[in-house]
Amino acid sequence: MADYAVQARKSAGGGLTRFLYNTFIRNLSAKIAATPMMATVLVVFVGCTLWTVWYSFTNSRLLPTGEFVGFDQYRRLFATSRWNTSVNNLVIYGSFSLVFTLVFGFILAVLMDQKIRFESAFRTIMLYPFALSFIVTGLVWQWIMNPTLGLQGTMRNMGWANFTFDWLNNPRMVLYALLIAGLWQGVGFVMVLMLAGLRSVDDEIWKAARVDGIPTWRTYVSIVLPMMRGVFVTAVVLVGSGIVRLYDLVVAMTDGGPGISSEVPAKYVYNYMFGAGNIAQGLAASTMMLITVLIIIVPWAYLEFGGKGRRS
Amino acid sequence: MKRFAVVAAMATAFLGSTAIHAAELEVTHWWTSAGEAAAVAEFARVFEEETGHTWVDSALGGSGTGANPVIISRIIGGDPMGATQMNTGRDAEELIQAGLMRDLTDIAEEMNISEFYVDQSLLEPCTYEGRIYCFPINIHSWDWLWLSTAAYETIGQPVPTTWDEYVASWPALQEAGILPFGLATGWPFAGIPGVLLAGIGGSDLIIAINRDKDVEAVRSPEFREVAEALDGIRQVVSPETMVPAFADVGNQLLEGEAAGNIHGDWLQGDLQIAGGVPGEDYECLPALGLNDQLTGGGDAFYFPVLPEGTDPAVIEAQTELARILISPEAQLAFNLKKGSMPIRTDIDLSQANACMQKALVLLENGLLPSGDFALSSDTQQQLQDLNIEFLGDDSITVDAYIERYASIIESAD
Fold first, then answer.
1. In a domain, B121, yes or no
2. Which domain holds residue B47?
3. Does B98 touch chain A if contact means CB atoms closer than 8 Å?
4. Residue-range domains of chain A with CATH
5. What is the pTM of this model?
6. Which residue positions does the secretion signal occupy (chain B) (predicted)?
7. CA nearest B406: which of B213, B203, B200, B229?
8. Assembly ipTM
9. CB distance from B175 to chain A under 8 Å?
10. Are the beta carbons of A82 and B95 separated by less than 8 Å?
């Protein structure tokens, strides 16, 4: 490495040489180490994404062999009521899920943070649902919410003859039934993230706030919360990506029913790609999912990483 | 050097002779209900007894909607099974065109299959450019109305003999607290509109819509009757009364908790296993008691092309399985358990029960083109989405249903 550096210093006058040196030679071992990862990213992520977008403009059926047909698949997609319902459902489920997961996660973390006894036991209990897959979560809640076998049946057998809890069979409430199961599964994880964030706040800050006579809740809201920005961003990204790919919970719990009232976009993609053997239609739908994610991620990434040197 | 050559030749000969010994053949299918499992076990039994090969059973859950994608993606993904069941129809069309399925024409000619196949139209979906790529192994029909004898005893009425009498009995059934129409969640509903189309709409209508994709036929008064019948079913079915699997509806019928159900003839396999006797515990009305023809579908076996370097014994096992599946012995054993009709004309079906006997009479009038046969999987999926939405959402009117049905048929292929 040393003689490269000497060479570079010798030719320091030429901007191009320095550029080439910086691009290819500097930190050579690090660059070699990163090459497999870069190749994977380019081929698997970028390459497959472009492939997906391209074939969504064709009339491919079971195999990707179709001809270019312009926006036909998209026209059909947005004329399909099942797709439109799916998108609506995802927006409703997504906004509730994001807000409630973060709020409950934070509140639980704050409660945990009160130096309570058996904290690790509580933490384990809260985190346990996260160890279950969405399929298992969905099946468990399907049984709990089943009107004849589950909670409603039990309460009626105990004497409350008018007790009604039939959200799974109610087209208007079924999304909230999914939400309950989703929250039960996801809140514990966010709580643990937040708890780690809370613990990373310096004790000196707490002491200073106490000296100034600031009430505890105020310290949390105005001082600790802004300091946990990084943890929040991580939590939002994790919860958000979980929402967009929501699929297995729906399949296990409702299979899109009653009717089509709990359909979600990922399920549409799967059904049309594999069940109906219409790849192009499925890819058009998944491209729309990608665009949705980009619309959310790009402005955020710009704020976070854009404007070089402004932050960090 | 010479000695080495001899040894090598002997070794190859030795290897060659052992290679054709018993092989393991993986067979995928989605026959998982009690009646279906009993039927497929017959195939496995005959195959193992006759050939000495091993049938490796890979039953897949989720029926056509769940298992079909798994089968197709395994074949496309380069991990083909030895043989697979699929519905006779257009689901595997592109796999055949892409050369992923084994050409069975030689076996077909050797067995002279055109001699004994009940209806040549069954072979149409298996034929591509004059070659044969699959063997239909049974004929299934969705076109059955199953009625519970017990339920009609309870309300003191005779068991209906047509769809119209059945519909007329609904109010009395509801008064007695009996479900007029039992239904399982998910795919079982998807077959019902086609049954109404064949039964109420009649042969001409279903040919015009399914085969000729005639949009005007969808807007005709005959189709309106079909849509109204579907609307009628929607009125008496609710999510609270639906059961998880179609076999549960069979139990509801035997217990007299539900009075009727439209479902394919494979329901009969489960009714029999549960101890039901046709004519005593349940009645069956083919084509809703209205039409004299049935829509035909069924199952076919496909043999994917295996990758280079596969043990020749496995390929030999494929050939032998193909022969056995359509042999008289296996056909009889399988179809009696499955409740479906065999594809051979030369089988003595005197053992078949009363319902199958009724079907055999109708079969002589020729098969009608079911959705499976005539419509691409894409179109079928769109119709299924529409039907499920219609069932779940009372705000969709019959008119809106007809219009949307028409627009799907318009773009159908």
1. yes
2. 23-140+297-343
3. yes
4. 82-305 (1.10.3720.10)
5. 0.81
6. 1-22
7. B213
8. 0.79
9. no
10. no
